[in-house]
Amino acid sequence: MNAPSSTAPARALGTTPAGTPWHASLRVAVLASLAVIIVLLAFLWPSYTSKVKDLPLIVAGPPAATAQLTTGLSATGMFDITSATDREAAVVAIEERNAYGAVVAGPGGVEVLTATAASPIAAQAITGVAQKLAAQAAQQAQATGAEAPKVTMTEVAPFGEKDPRGSNVAVAGLPLAMGGMVGGVLVSLLVSGHRRRFGAVAAYAVIGGLALAAVLGPWLHVLTGSYLVEAAIMGAALFATASFIVGLHGLIGQPGIAVGAIVTLFLGNPLSGMSLPKELLPWHWGEIGQFFVPGASGTLLRLESYFPQASTTHGWLVLAAWSLAGLAMLWFGPHRDDHAAADTTTETAVETELLPA
C-alpha cells in the first residue's frame, strides 16, 4: 500500500473545507461598500462643491471707462480683475492663459473676449457678463433717450471644428490616467527584474503615446496641435504614472499597486482641472491638482492644442518629477525583484515535486 502523500491536505472523511468566517465576509462587504462611496465622492465632489469664483479676467481701456466696469465686475465675486492698457495686451494675456477672458472698453462700446478652449464654464460666465452689460446699456439708453453703446462678443480661442463644445477634451483625461495605471499594474505583475520593468514601462510609454495621439489627433481631431508633441506629452504621462506604480511596488510590495492607483485615479484625476477650472475647486485643491500627473498632462495637451503661446515649463517639470520618483523607488526599493524571486521559488518547487522519490 502506498503511503499517503505528504502534500495532500489533512482532511477528515465526510467533511468539507471550512469557508471564510461570516464576520470576515461581512467585513469585506462593508469595505467594498465604503470603496464604492469613496469612488463616487472622488468624481462627484469637485463638481458638487465648485462655484464660480476668482476667475482671472482682464479689464482694458481708458481708466475713466474701466473704473466703473471694474467696480461692477468685482461686486459679483466671480472674477479676479486685472487691468490692461489696451485690447492687444488683453488678447496676449488670454493666449498665454493668464486670464479666461477680457472686457475691453472703447469709444464704440464694450467688447467681451472669451476663450472657450480654456474652459467652457468660464466662457459661459463671461458671456453672462456680456448679456448683463448689454441689458444695462439698453436700460440707460431708454432712460436718457441716447443711443445704446454696443456690446460685442469675440472668441479668441475656440475649440476645434470636430469638438466645438470641448466635451471630448475633458473626457480624454480619464483614459490617459487609466492607461498609465493599467500599464503600471501589468508591468508590476507580469515583468520580473527592475531593469526589465524599466524597459517595459519605457516601451509602453512610447507605443501608447504614439497610439493615443493618433486616435485623439489625426483620427478623431479632438486635439489640434502637433502630433509629435502631443504624442510626447501622452507618452510622458503614461511613463510618469506607470513608473510611479511600478516604483511603489518595488518599494513596498503588492500594496504599492493599490496606493499608486488611488493616487492617480481617485486623487489626481478629479483634481486635474480637465472638466472644471482649477479656480472653481474649493480651498487650494485646484492648484494642488496641477502637481499630479493627470493635471499636468491635461494642461499640457490643452496648451499645445489651443494656447501655443503659453508656457509649458510647469507641466513638463511635474511629469519629470513623478517619473524620477518612480524610477528611484524601483531602482533602490527592497521589493524591486520580488516577482522574479517568486517565479524562481515556484519553478524550484515544481521541479522538486516532479523528481522521483
UniProtKB/TrEMBL annotation:
It comes from the Bacteria. Keywords: Membrane, Transmembrane, Transmembrane helix. The keyword Transmembrane applies. The chain crosses the membrane at residues 28-48, 169-191, 198-221, 227-248, 255-276, 313-332. This is Integral membrane protein. It comes from Nostocoides jenkinsii Ben 74.
